[in-house]
Amino acid sequence: MCATTLTDENGRGFIIPIGGGEDRVKEMQIHSKFVELSGGADAYIVVIPTASMLSETGEDYNRIFSSLGAGKVEYLPITRRLDCDNPTFFEMLDRATGIFITGGNQLRLSAILGGTLLVTKIRRQNAAGVPVAGTSAGASIMSEHMVAGGQGNESPAEGTVTLAPGIGLTNAVIIDQHFTQRNRLGRLLTASSFNPFLIGLGIDEDTAAFIGPDNVLEVVGSGTVTVVDASKLTHSSMWDAKPGEALSLIGLRLDVLGEGCRYDLKARVGYPPPQFLGLSSGSDTDT
Amino acid sequence: MCATTLTDENGRGFIIPIGGGEDRVKEMQIHSKFVELSGGADAYIVVIPTASMLSETGEDYNRIFSSLGAGKVEYLPITRRLDCDNPTFFEMLDRATGIFITGGNQLRLSAILGGTLLVTKIRRQNAAGVPVAGTSAGASIMSEHMVAGGQGNESPAEGTVTLAPGIGLTNAVIIDQHFTQRNRLGRLLTASSFNPFLIGLGIDEDTAAFIGPDNVLEVVGSGTVTVVDASKLTHSSMWDAKPGEALSLIGLRLDVLGEGCRYDLKARVGYPPPQFLGLSSGSDTDT
């Protein structure tokens, strides 16, 4: 993990978007690291299963995080906006040392949670140092500008992506999940190119970006995080393209980051895993 | 089209990889431009339908190119290596002013044509100024290093792509087709990163790259050509990744080029369509 951790009391907590489909039965590497960041045996993890229609989702995560050694796990059974006024839930979030948002439908999440005091609590806790993780829809909703929907398998074009406001834990990135599996490069390029200040994060299944308080992310999991930096575009046809017409985007930077790679969201620079930065002897074995 | 055309007698002919699934019934923009480059009413177009198992493919293209005003169109009924020794076919290729390679299976193409005098004839004709177009499998086979197969829907990883020798009209690029439609970014990134001198061209369906004698390509069609330049990679885990492990590739350049965009394969620079290079007044209309 990055050098800065939850013990840095001046920093916000980690923001941990996960690309969905993460390993929940074998090594559970991503969930393990989240539990560790949340305090391990001292952790009190609160799960928000609202994106899912499945009543068992909350219980599932209780079982997973408990099996990984989390001290205490509870979920908030929020299925409608009125639930977001429940003072018991506020009190639970105030005590949380880790918050986890499950997958499902991100518009369900934003439509039910958006503008409520509950979201304010989540933001305040994250700002105070509590890590917030989310998978699939729960990953998308973390940023200020959220990919709400759109088509995979398409070249970049204005109509391929729909944006909506997310819960705004960060405004540095816009997140897409199930990235390679659902062929979402076109819609992420479109989303990033609407306003190139946004860095696009395309997160594969069973893969997570652990975004530290220093805005350096580290990749954990079996797939990759594709980082799209559109800020150096020398040409974009965004404002000129006809509806449905394929966009031209010249000058994109792309980093494909596997396990252990890092990316500095402020400097917009990717780094290999630490072992490639030192003077390693390497291997000259023929293969 | 680019300024340099077939009338430049010092140059080779255009190389025109097409991403498959091109419009054959409406405007037939790509085929029209190929017929025009081949000489229009004076054209003698020779079609190589070998990649396809369908006996009617050759006849189909005869009909299409004739309907677009080509003077004469014939196809070579090559289905096995022995057919490649037929002197009648050599004579037809010697007179050709345009050569078209159909889609199908590129390994069928390379296994039947590879190493025969027929391929030498195609190369010599292209070097002498004759445009050669190919669609789908016929596009892949044009380059020295050919994408022979592999998986779509995958992150870059060594096992996701199989290379084989193509017919070598160019060694500047490696070509993949049905690009967005079949989610082939991962395998093209892998292919380009094996040896980053290769520029990866990911060509969408109904889209073509008209590569001129000056090695500047121009995009024609309804989709995009994605240009991958791996030459500025600051880190690649290619030599170190375990089998099946997702690759890390830091420092990729990516251009997504729609209709009218150009790319200079020597300078590795993309350009917008000409109207964006002049002092156009633009439109300030609110939308």
From TrEMBL, chains A, B:
The record, for Gene3D superfamilies, names: 3.40.50.880
Leading EC class? hydrolase
Which sites are catalytic? S136 (charge relay system), H178 (charge relay system), E205 (charge relay system)
Q: Which UniProt keywords apply?
A: Hydrolase, Protease, Serine protease
Which transformation does this protein catalyse, written as a reaction?
[L-4-(L-arginin-2-N-yl)aspartate](n) + H2O = [L-4-(L-arginin-2-N-yl)aspartate](n-1) + L-4-(L-arginin-2-N-yl)aspartate
The GO terms this record gives for MF are: peptidyl-dipeptidase activity; serine-type peptidase activity
One Pfam entry name: Peptidase_S51
User: Which EC numbers characterise this protein's activity in its record?
Assistant: 3.4.15.6
- Biological process GO terms, please? proteolysis
SUPFAM superfamilies referenced in this protein's UniProt entry, alphabetically:
Class I glutamine amidotransferase-like (SSF52317)
Q: Which NCBIfam families match?
A: cyanophycinase (TIGR02069)
Q: Which PANTHER family match?
A: CYANOPHYCINASE
| Function statement | Exopeptidase that catalyzes the hydrolytic cleavage of multi-L-arginyl-poly-L-aspartic acid (cyanophycin; a water-insoluble reserve polymer) into aspartate-arginine dipeptides.
UniProt lists the family membership as follows: Belongs to the peptidase S51 family.
Q: What is this protein called?
A: Cyanophycinase
